[in-house]
Design brief:
about 80 residues; 3 helices
């Protein structure tokens, strides 16, 4: 169940970051895909570091931030490659 919450939170985080930072947005589909990956990675990273941020709320926050951060990183890479 935690994995599903992480992936959904990551998708929401990726789309929220895309909405707020239109310059880095990849479109709804790709914001979701990258957000899902970032949400999964964010949750795994928090687990590996033994960071416990009060259960489900911490999982949602960590995954959402992970999704948003990865979406921005991919957006930066995409815009840098477009300038070449």
């Amino acid at each position: 169940m935690e994995l599903i919450i992480s992936l959904l939170s990551g998708a929401v985080g990726g789309n929220l970051a895309g909405a707020l930072l239109k310059k880095f947005s990849l479109g709804t589909l790709w914001n979701s895909v990258v957000g899902i990956l970032g949400g999964g990675l964010g949750a795994q990273l928090l687990g590996m570091l033994d960071i416990d941020i009060s259960g489900i709320i911490g999982n949602i926050a960590g995954s959402g931030v992970g999704g948003a951060v990865l979406m921005v990183i991919v957006g930066l890479i995409k815009s840098a490659m477009g300038k070449s």
